[in-house]
Amino acid sequence: MMNYKMIVLDLDDTLLCDDHTISPRTKKALMDAQEAGVKVVLASGRPTFAMTHIAKELELEKYGSFILSFNGAQIRNCTTNELIFSSTLTPETVHELYHISKEEEVGIHTYVGDDIVTPASNEYTDIEAQITGMPIIEEVDFVKAIQEPVVKVLMVGAPEGLVHLEKKMQLQLEGKLNVVRSKPFFLEFTEAGVDKGTSLHHLIKQLDIKQEEVIAIGDSYNDLAMIKFAGLGVAMGNAPDDIKEIANYVTDTNMEDGVAKVVETFILKEIVQTK
């Protein structure tokens, strides 16, 4: 049996229950895994600011672990708080995306410091504010407001429209930007070649951990790259069918301790057996 050394977790609809908390069973499993020397890594589309409280709850700084935020565009060492990888988009790229969002009649936002910046508030950016706990700043002159590089940009809108826009943008911006939906109503743009999979590759090289020693668990399209990359790629029970088809293993939903069951089955059982 494989001796896994790292477990990489998406947050929303994966590690977290619908009320954005970690279930007691899942927390215990992850603490036991860390005690046994397994790295627990959080990998989310969320900004770093909106992940640190979860990293603290799991005591990642004590166990020398990492946060992959902004869909992998940043990797932060939880113990030293050092940024070990960072990728950004130029202001010109952001301005171009803003003009596309106007043509396509969808909302848009980005992040400046610990604020969400948008030209006009909308129901989907409001959801992002609720999820992240970050304030929204409305900048009617969005182009003028964005004069420094940013980590990522989101176009936001009704899910049925974004399905088509995702395909269209992937074709139009191929080789220029990475385009992926993280939630049905969030279409995310990062630097080309940057996703949760490429970031994970970068991280394990630094830690001397092999690809086959990694478990990655997720539920959405921005998790596909890391699910494909990991030695054991796991889809949540609440993931769409096309993600389940690509995964090596399907666990229960985020409301049925899906993450805990993977940790117990593939990590903790192995530790007990090898003792």
Task: Provide an overview of this structure.
By secondary structure, this protein is α/β, with parallel strands linked by helices. The chain is built from eleven helices and 14 strands. The chain has helices spanning 11-15, 24-35, 52-57, 91-104, 123-132, 142-145, 159-172, 196-207, 224-229, 241-246, 258-274, and strands at 6-9, 39-43, 66-69, 74-77, 83-86, 107-112, 115-118, 136-138, 153-156, 177-183, 186-191, 214-218, 232-235, 249-250. Strands 5-4-3-2-1-12-13-14 form an eight-stranded mixed beta sheet, sandwiched between helices. α2 runs parallel beside α11. The two termini are 14 Å apart. The mean pLDDT is 96.
Brief characterization of the structure:
This protein is an alpha/beta fold and 275 residues long.
Q: What percent of the residues sit in helical stretches (DSSP H or I)?
A: 25-40%
Strand content: 15-25%
How widely separated are the two ends? Answer: 14 Å
**Overall pLDDT:** 96
Order of helix and strand elements from N to C terminus:
EHHEHEEEHEEHEHEHEEHEHEHEH
Number of strands: 14
Counting helices, strands and paired strands, the structural category is alpha/beta
Put simply, the count of helices is: 11
Give the strand order, joined by hyphens, for the main sheet. 5-4-3-2-1-12-13-14
Largest sheet: 8 strands, mixed
Indicate the overall shape: globular
Which blocks of ≥5 consecutive residues have pLDDT under 50?
none
Radius of gyration: 18 Å
